[in-house]
């Protein structure tokens, strides 16, 4: 469903006069550039008390050590986790999801991904330049992967992707289209779960099989459908957004395309560096303290919310040498793009395989790839939970 978000306002309780307002850092809508205020926050108030536009008081964390602690410490959980409700069959459900998102579980995945990427590139080249790489490659490639993983007919991807503009719209208040948008997709997934066994595959097939166990441990159909909707939405949006931003970063540093084409074995490290530099989440990562915890010199009390400014942490010079410039050959790269600890994104390995395949195919097939418009003319999406341009017009 659509995500609630707030603008962050108010002065620091310390010196009370930050160089750049918190609102600017948390509402910054571009992900090809950094808000200058994050450096001030990280250096002066790495754990700062701020207030949302709705009047809620939260802690804003922007240094690498503090951000890593919040993301990895079991005493912090997702918002709403203070009194978690474990669904029936929760352990089996989690196990099925983890298996379904493991790229090693499908021996043919790498070849399938490359063939799919090549097919999409064939279509782009047949159309001729310029083309919108987001609509013509990033979105359908991300959707194709998640259709395969879930066991959804590949031809249904436009229907599912069309819901995401509403599902991931950032709004402090609910709006009319949220509920029908959610139930439309949940109904679709429920239909797939109840299809004949011979027509089920992928993760949906595994989820449907969970209903064959003891009644007391069977997850409800609504729970299984919700899991499927959430996995498709979060996965497709995240992988497509990262791919758009990774390509844009390469286009702004075209010498990197030549290096990767000459040394394709370095693609994995390049993806790691692009993930470190990726700034996709528009309003930070929210966590809630499940106990009283000291973060740096600050005591965060149980029930208080913390917002992790990942873009501050992943550009912290104490953790990354020369963090401002892209360094695809960087050795140690402990970035926090996928979170950390027990809250590490379960699809992190799948996302990396997807990105590595996409970039390898584009660099190999389109070595002359370049922007078709000046970078400053790109139109950036607002009011969305991911920072990305509406279109990415390219030539080759």
Automatic annotation (TrEMBL):
Keyword annotations from UniProtKB, A to Z: Heme, Iron, Membrane, Metal-binding, Monooxygenase, Oxidoreductase, Transmembrane, Transmembrane helix
- Please name the source species: Streptomyces enissocaesilis
**UniProt superkingdom:** Bacteria
> What family does this chain come from, according to its entry?
Belongs to the cytochrome P450 family.
Q: Does the keyword Manganese apply?
A: no
Tell me which Gene3D superfamilies the record gives. Answer: Cytochrome P450 (1.10.630.10)
Query: Membrane-crossing residues?
Result: 224-251
Pfam families associated with the record: p450 (PF00067)
Q: What is the organism lineage in this UniProt record?
A: Bacteria, Bacillati, Actinomycetota, Actinomycetes, Kitasatosporales
Keyword Heme in record: yes
What protein am I looking at?
Answer: Mycocyclosin synthase Cyp121
């Amino acid at each position: 469903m659509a995500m609630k978000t707030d603008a962050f306002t108010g002065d620091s309780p310390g010196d009370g006069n930050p160089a750049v307002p918190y609102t600017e850092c948390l509402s910054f809508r571009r992900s090809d550039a950094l808000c200058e205020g994050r450096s001030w926050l990280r250096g002066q108030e790495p754990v700062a008390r701020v207030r949302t536009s709705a009047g809620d008081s939260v802690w804003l964390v922007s240094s690498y050590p503090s951000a890593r602690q919040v993301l990895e410490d079991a005493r912090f959980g997702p918002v709403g986790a203070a009194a978690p409700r474990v669904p029936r069959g929760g352990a089996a459900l989690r196990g099925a999801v983890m298996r379904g998102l493991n790229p090693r579980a499908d021996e043919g995945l790498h070849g399938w991904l490359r063939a799919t990427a090549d097919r999409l590139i064939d279509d782009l080249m047949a159309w001729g330049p310029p083309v919108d790489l987001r609509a013509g490659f990033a979105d359908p490639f991300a959707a194709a992967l998640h259709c395969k993983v879930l066991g959804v007919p590949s031809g249904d991807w436009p229907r599912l992707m069309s819901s995401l503009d509403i599902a991931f719209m950032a709004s402090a208040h609910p709006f009319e289209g949220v509920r029908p948008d959610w139930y439309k997709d949940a109904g679709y997934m429920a239909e797939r779960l109840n299809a004949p066994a011979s027509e089920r595959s992928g993760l949906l097939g595994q989820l449907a099989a969970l209903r064959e166990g003891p009644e007391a441990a069977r997850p409800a159909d609504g729970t299984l459908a919700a899991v499927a909707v959430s996995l498709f939405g979060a996965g497709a949006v995240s992988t497509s957004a990262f791919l758009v931003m990774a390509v844009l970063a390469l286009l702004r540093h075209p010498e990197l395309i030549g290096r990767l084409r000459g040394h394709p074995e370095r693609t994995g490290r390049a993806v790691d560096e692009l993930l470190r530099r990726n700034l996709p989440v528009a309003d930070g990562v929210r966590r809630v303290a499940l106990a009283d915890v000291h973060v740096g010199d600050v005591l965060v009390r149980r029930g208080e919310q913390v917002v992790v400014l990942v873009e501050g942490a992943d550009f912290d010079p104490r953790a990354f040498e020369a963090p401002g410039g892209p360094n695809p050959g960087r050795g140690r790269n402990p970035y926090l793009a996928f979170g950390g600890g027990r809250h590490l994104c379960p699809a992190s390995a799948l996302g990396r395989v997807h990105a590595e395949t996409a970039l390898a195919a584009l660099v190999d097939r389109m070595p002359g790839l370049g922007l078709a418009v000046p970078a400053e003319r790109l139109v950036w999406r607002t009011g969305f939970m991911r920072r990305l341009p509406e279109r990415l017009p390219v030539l080759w």
